[in-house]
Amino acid sequence: MKLHNIQGYIQQIYLVEYSDKLLLLDGASRADVGVILRFIRNELGRPITDLKTVVVTHMHPDHAGAAHRLRSITGCNVVASHSDTAWYSGLDGLLMHLADVMLALWMAMRMGKAKKNLWYSKVLKPDLMLTDEQTIPNFDDWRVIETPGHTDRDISVYNAKESIVYVADLMVEVKKRLVAPFPVFYPNQYRKSVERIYDLNVDTLLLAHKGQANFTYEAKTHLLNTAPRRPVTHWRVVKIKLKKLTRSIFLRH
Questions:
Q1: Which one, out of 16, 69, 123, 169, has a CA that is 20 to 30 A from the CA of 175?
Q2: 203 close to 3: Cβ distance less than 8 angstroms
Q3: Which residue intervals of 111-163 are DSSP H helices?
Q4: DSSP tally for the chain: helices H, then strands E
Q5: How far, in Å, CA of 32 to CA of 128, rounded?
Q6: Span 56-115, pLDDT tens digits
Q7: What is the pLDDT of residue 245?
Q8: pLDDT of 215 over the 50 cut
Q9: Residue 36 near residue 82 (C-beta atoms within 8 A)
């Protein structure tokens, strides 16, 4: 097994190579489709049909945006967590989807990246939905670990034999410290997810942003001490800003 770390549009892309197949640990963004296919063809010298499975850890633009397109081009399977409803469902879901795409574009701008089309379907249609501890078909050394908190359906991808876990956006690195991501919809579940990953005691912990991290006890303690204890979501941030704006207007008058 070889693990390749590819620089994506706004996140790291992790491609696992075997002699007869390839596994993508997350669904990347729409802007990454060409990057992934060129890497397979040019760097690995392999046909793109060797990509057999794409995991989608959650529905944000840089984790699900390339999945459907890659399936249509390569014939790969798309694997996601089991859920009875779409993450971006209803009017709130539509607005949140728009906000998340705009947030991804804003992040790209801050990184100095050229503007690209990140639009993707707000409804994922996976070939297979897995539950906690289930192995990924045809890749039996990898299994999914349910790690909700960032959203209600986040999963991490774990290889016990190689002592590797990819945690997607469960944590991010800011100023060389691990902190909670934005948003955190379910803070209690988030804390349990962090503890669960720590208890795996892996040699290699991979983040979607910034690559490999050193997840020491001190890093975990800082992460949990600074993580929100109430939901921090798009709507709560908007409400707080509106309250501050309203208060400032009244104070002026």
A1: 16
A2: no
A3: none
A4: 7, 14
A5: 22
A6: 999 999 999 999 999 999 999 999 999 999 999 999 899 899 989 999 999 999 999 999
A7: 44
A8: yes
A9: no
Running DSSP on this structure, what letter comes out for residue 184?
Answer: B
Token representation of residue 159: 């290889």
The predicted pLDDT at position 242 comes to 44
* Cβ–Cβ < 8 Å for 177, 210: no
Element (H, E) at 63: helix 61-64
- Domain ranges for the chain: 2-226
Q: What is the DSSP string of 163-205?
A: TEEE-TTS-EEETTEEE--S-BS-HHHHHHHHHHHHHH--SEE
Pick the CATH number of 2-226 from 3.60.15.10, 3.40.50.12280, 1.10.10.10, 2.60.40.2550: 3.60.15.10
Residue 154, pLDDT above cutoff 60: yes
Q: How confident is the model at residue 26 (pLDDT cuts 50, 70, 90)?
A: very high
Tokens (6 digits) for 97: 């989807």
Contact 122, 94 (CB under 8 A): yes
What contacts 226, CB < 8 A, 6 or more positions away? 179, 180
Question: SS3 of 144, please?
Answer: strand
Amino acid at 168: A
